[in-house]
Design a protein that fits this description.
The protein has helices at about 1-10, 15-20, 25-45, 50-65, 75-95, 105-135, 135-145, 150-160, 165-185, 190-200. The chain is mainly α. This is Sigma-70 family RNA polymerase sigma factor.
Length: about 200
């Protein structure tokens, strides 16, 4: 089971969604991990409310899972997801009688920002990946295994070291990555997204 989760990281979005339509929840988890923070950042830009943004994105993914057999992705999963997000935001404004707050040129603004946001997101991902690559080897291995879904005890068994040592490696990895992302955020517009990424480190 663990091996399947690791392999899914190499799948394209479309390959993952094909697996989702076959009721593979591990593939769904990978799509969720791949896109959650990215579209949450987009939702927050529109709603300017963290709790409402998180709730909207959670509902969006729940609906994707529940309607997985009916959903037809015409182009790419990324395009489908952003179209779904746009529709969800419109629905939110209408349902909450906030139509006046909804920008009339939403689609136009979104198109203009798309290239910039893609570049900014790719820069963030590059910074994140680089921070992992820069870790000492033992810390990096422990962190990557933890990210793949293994527990501290499982990592300890796999690497033949004590759980306490693994905890130490993960703590060092967390602090190093967090600091590098903070340095990156000082020169980017992804402060909110990075703060969300940091919350995941608190689960270690």
């Amino acid at each position: 089971m663990r091996t399947k989760r690791i392999q899914f990281k190499e799948f394209s979005d479309e390959e993952l969604f094909f697996e989702v339509k076959l009721d593979n929840h591990h593939a769904f988890e990978e799509l969720y991990r791949r896109y959650f923070y990215r579209i949450l950042n987009d939702a927050f830009k529109r709603l300017r409310d963290r709790d409402q943004s998180e709730e909207l994105i959670q509902e969006l993914f729940v609906n994707i899972w529940l309607k997985r057999h009916q959903i037809m992705v015409a182009k790419t999963f990324d395009a489908y997801l952003h179209t779904s997000l746009r529709n969800a935001v419109i629905s939110f404004f209408r349902k909450n009688d906030k139509v006046a707050e909804y920008p009339a040129n939403y689609t136009e603004q979104e198109d203009k920002q798309a290239t910039y946001e893609e570049i900014a997101y790719n820069d963030l991902k590059t910074a994140y990946d680089q921070s992992i690559s820069d870790l000492p080897e033992k810390c990096r291995i422990a962190y990557e295994l933890f990210e793949s879904g293994m527990s501290i005890q499982e990592i300890a068994n796999t690497t033949n070291v004590s759980p306490k040592t693994i905890e130490s490696h993960l703590l060092k990895a967390r602090n190093t990555i967090r600091q590098q992302l903070r340095d990156f955020s000082a020169a980017s517009s992804f402060t909110f997204m990075i703060s969300l990424l940091e919350q995941t480190f608190d689960l270690i």
